[in-house]
DNA sequence: ATGCTCCTTCCAGCAACCGGAAGGTCAACA
DNA sequence: TGTTGACCTTCCGGTTGCTGGAAGGAGCAT
């Protein structure tokens, strides 16, 4: 398969696939004309990567996960630990974003949103606490 | 004030303050020795920026917000619209992260986490759906 | 031969900084 | 007076995970 085919079948852009080769996540063969030549196994790995990325794993985590995936003697504990750690980070991010959301929601709620200049959002940013 | 003083008082690293000058968010004067020389107004702006950044506004949003802040003839509707748009993006991000969290939570829950190789997390990533 | 699409490599850039090198300045202290 | 140490300066490169574009080769249809 050429890169266009695996791009379509994996859902990853060709650019991304080349990048993954660049950083050593995959190692497709080359045809005589210099084109990358992908086997089913490469496609499978790319789909794995696409899914792991969609779950928010970093590239380095993905590298580790691929390594574990290909290691028949892995301990599931290692995979679980990685996933758990990632989950913890995601939960922290959610908490951060929720704090922003709550503050912003209140500020937006307090702002008249008319054509007058008076604005509690700017006041809050400027350090004048107002509105409740 | 020198940069170290405003860094301490605004809570922003000196590097960040220099960067903000670079991209034109602030324009501190210079002393005879070439050191940046910050007025109270600069400090005030930096605190404004720090707070806006903490609420997740992008640098470009911050630039706009600062502009609105300094414009006495602004309409609060413009500020509110910007904040509302940002809020919507944050809510979308939260939703994305929550979807990841939910999937990961389930996968982590399904994984034995022992020293055997069998792992539903890897199976899921590989496209074999298992575990409910 | 021409045109079109696909492929290749390489280079630049995005956000929002951070780290470090190389060097100038300043205040204090022996 | 010399020197130490803390501060300041600029500049360059790296971070993450790609994305866009330029310049050029390959393959196929007409």
UniProtKB/TrEMBL annotation, chains A, B:
Gene3D superfamilies xrefs: 1.10.1660.10
Coiled-coil ranges from the UniProt annotation: 80-107
Gene Ontology cellular component annotations, sorted alphabetically: cytoplasm
One Pfam family hit: MerR
CDD domains: HTH_CueR
Swiss-Prot/TrEMBL keywords: Coiled coil, Cytoplasm, DNA-binding, Transcription, Transcription regulation
Protein name listed in UniProt: Cu(I)-responsive transcriptional regulator
Organism ancestry: Bacteria, Pseudomonadati, Pseudomonadota, Alphaproteobacteria, Rhodobacterales
Entry superkingdom: Bacteria
A Gene Ontology BP annotation from the UniProt entry: positive regulation of DNA-templated transcription
Domain HTH merR-type stretches: 1-68
Annotated compartments: Cytoplasm
Gene Ontology molecular function terms on file: copper ion binding; DNA binding; DNA-binding transcription factor activity
UniProt cross-references to InterPro entries, sorted A to Z: CueR, DNA-bd_dom_put_sf, MerR-type_HTH_dom, MerR_fam, Tscrpt_reg_MerR_DNA-bd
């Amino acid at each position: 398969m050429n890169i266009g085919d695996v791009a379509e079948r994996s859902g990853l852009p060709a650019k991304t696939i080349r990048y993954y080769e660049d950083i050593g996540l995959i190692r497709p063969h080359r045809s005589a004309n210099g084109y990358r030549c992908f086997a089913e196994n490469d496609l499978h790995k790319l789909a794995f990567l696409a899914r792991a990325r969609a779950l928010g794993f970093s590239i380095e985590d993905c590298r580790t996960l691929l390594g574990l995936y290909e290691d028949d003697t892995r301990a599931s504990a290692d995979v679980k630990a990685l996933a758990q750690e990632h989950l913890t980070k995601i939960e922290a991010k959610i908490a951060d974003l929720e704090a922003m959301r709550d503050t912003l929601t209140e500020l937006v709620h307090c702002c008249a949103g008319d054509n007058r200049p008076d604005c509690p959002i700017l006041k809050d940013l400027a350090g004048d606490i107002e509105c409740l």
